[in-house]
TrEMBL record:
GO terms for molecular function: pentosyltransferase activity. The lineage of its organism: Eukaryota, Viridiplantae, Streptophyta, Embryophyta, Tracheophyta. It is found in: Golgi apparatus membrane. This is Glycosyltransferase 61 catalytic domain-containing protein. Pfam families: Glyco_transf_61. It comes from Microthlaspi erraticum. The keyword tRNA-binding does not apply. The chain crosses the membrane at residues 7-29. Keywords: Glycoprotein, Glycosyltransferase, Membrane, Transferase, Transmembrane, Transmembrane helix. It is a single-pass type II membrane protein. GO terms for cellular component: Golgi membrane. InterPro entries: Glyco_transf_61_cat, Glycosyltransferase_61.
Length: 530
């Protein structure tokens, strides 16, 4: 027995070491799923705030079931792959200003061959609000009724943004200081040739992010004076159709992707480089990120220790897919982790979880009423059917408060559905239906997301409100009623890219037959096991 003891001891020690190794691997992966890997060239910790430096709390990234690592980007990623469209296809790095020393200034862009756009970032970036021509922004809608759209979009004068550079590297091109006050040594940071290659206009009439980059000047460190420093990473965002949910979702997604691609350790702050008034959608901006502010709300020049320039929403796959063929299909992150496929993605599911988590909703919870009861059970499960309605509301200063009807007998259809459910004549034996009247325009954004999360089936006429399906849970069914005037693929594509079951009813005009809608919904419910 004494001879066997050393052998037993060795076995026990080996098992303990092996168990420790597995634990280390588990926690390492679990950590990577809750926050992105550190970016290899940007220090993630900045100097502690001192006088004239702003310090604000940053929200951590939540743990998301569909999260897959963003950095480093996949090697040899094919152009046109789903990861190229929806994930980190920004694989080509271009350095316009390389750092000199660990805390030196830099400016660079990450270019996507698939999207033909760039995410840019800079360290030690100075914004001069007086050199940006636009309205103040952030006002209440009632205060600015009638204001023109062109007044809200930024026009950048030369030097609206600056980065510090060693004088020896600038050469001797001496330019008059913008706004008077003598002269400074400076140079234009990104020339037209480089703009055309890495920040293409791409059919966008007024590419404000391109114009922002074109305005950047590299100035000597002696002229780089800052009265206020923002130490936390900050996204610079320009919006166009800021009051429309669909287009705002493209802005949210672009901002989210930019944050992940640049490896930000926490959720960044956002500065709107536009002069739009406030909208209800800012509730979600505040939930997703660590805070928002308008550029013109800074009364003096402000310096950002780390600024990230988010591409326009028009440059995302969500928008480009409306006119181009993006052959991608939703798949679970678990399956893609084990077996990556270039024509499948979990990125939109990850983003939807990000929205739900931002409002404090659990992303791992499954609806208890999704499956019908077993044959031995006498109870009947209940499934929420959310009917997304189109309502009149005042959207922006140029809006009259009336929305265009996409289904002229929407009220009749809803009333018929309500009677069908209330009368108990659904013909469904295994499930009950709770019909939810989705008057989303008069609900808070949080309540809207809650209604989407709790829905088993989402039904509605084509309209921006259906964009909320980006936050739907994986087993949600989408039923879209499409009038002849609005044969557009927006929501069919989102459903496909998320892997959701999708049904469409195409109308010969703008009126739906309530009986046909009921029959289709009954068919859908039965296919769900009811």
């Amino acid at each position: 027995m004494s001879k066997r003891n050393p052998r037993v001891l060795k076995i026990v020690v080996c098992m303990l070491l092996l168990n420790s190794l597995f634990l280390c691997i588990y926690f390492a992966f679990h950590s990577s799923s809750s926050s992105p890997e550190p970016h290899p060239h940007i220090p993630l910790r900045f100097h502690a705030s001192v006088n004239n430096q702003s310090a604000a709390i940053q929200k951590p990234w939540p743990i998301l079931p569909s999260y897959l690592p963003w950095t480093p980007p996949q090697k040899n990623l094919p152009t046109g792959s789903c990861e190229g469209y929806f994930g980190n296809g920004f694989t080509r790095r271009v350095d316009f200003l390389k750092p000199k020393g660990g805390e030196g200034s830099l400016f660079r862009c990450f270019y996507s061959e698939t999207l033909k756009s760039s995410i840019c970032e800079g360290r030690n970036v100075r914004m001069v609000p007086d050199r940006i021509v636009m309205s103040r922004g952030g006002e209440k809608l009632e205060e600015v009724m009638g204001r023109k759209e062109e007044d809200e979009l930024p026009e950048f004068r030369e030097g609206a943004f600056e980065v510090a550079e060693e004088i020896s590297r600038l050469g001797f091109n001496r330019n008059r200081r913008i706004g008077g006050g003598g002269s400074v040594i400076s140079r234009r940071l990104v020339n037209d040739e480089m703009l055309n290659e890495y920040i293409e206009e791409g059919g966008i009439d007024r590419h404000t992010m391109r114009d922002l980059v074109a305005s950047i000047r590299a100035v000597g460190t002696e002229d780089f004076v800052c009265e206020e420093w923002v130490e936390e990473p900050t996204l610079l965002v320009t919006r166009f159709e800021y009051a429309n949910l669909y287009h705002t979702v493209t802005d949210w997604y672009s901002a989210y992707v930019s944050s992940r691609v640049t490896g930000l350790p926490n959720r960044p702050h956002v500065v709107f480089i536009d002069g739009h008034c406030t909208t209800q959608l800012e509730e979600t901006w505040n939930a997703l990120f660590s805070g928002i502010r308008y550029a013109k709300n800074f009364t003096k020049p402000v310096c950002f220790r780390h600024a990230v320039l988010s591409p326009l929403g028009y440059e995302t796959a969500l928008f480009k897919g409306l006119t181009g063929d993006i052959d991608c299909y939703g798949e679970s992150a678990h399956n893609l982790w084990q077996n990556p496929e270039n024509n499948k993605t979990a990125r939109l599911s990850e983003f939807g979880e990000m929205i739900r988590s931002a409002f404090g909703f659990p992303v791992n919870r499954h609806r208890t009423s999704e499956k019908p009861p077993s044959s031995s059970s006498s109870a009947t499960s209940v499934q929420n059917v959310l009917f997304v309605r189109r309502e009149d509301y005042l959207a922006h200063p140029r809006h009259g408060g009336k929305v265009q009807s996409r289904l002229i007998n929407e009220e009749e259809v809803f009333d018929s559905l309500h009677h069908w459910v209330a009368s108990g004549s659904t013909g469904l034996t295994k499930c009950g239906i709770n019909l939810v009247n989705g008057l989303l325009a008069h609900m808070s954004m949080k309540d809207q997301v809650r209604a989407i999360q709790d829905a088993s089936v989402i039904i509605g006429a084509h309209g921006a409100g259906l964009t909320h399906i980006v936050s739907a849970t994986p087993n949600t069914t989408i039923f879209e009623i499409i009038s002849v005037e609005f044969q557009r693929p927006h929501f069919e594509l989102i459903a496909k890219w998320k892997g959701l079951e999708y049904h469409a009813m195409h109308l010969a005009n703008s009126r739906a037959d309530p009986t046909a809608v009921i029959e289709k919904l009954e068919e859908i419910m039965k296919s769900r096991g009811c």
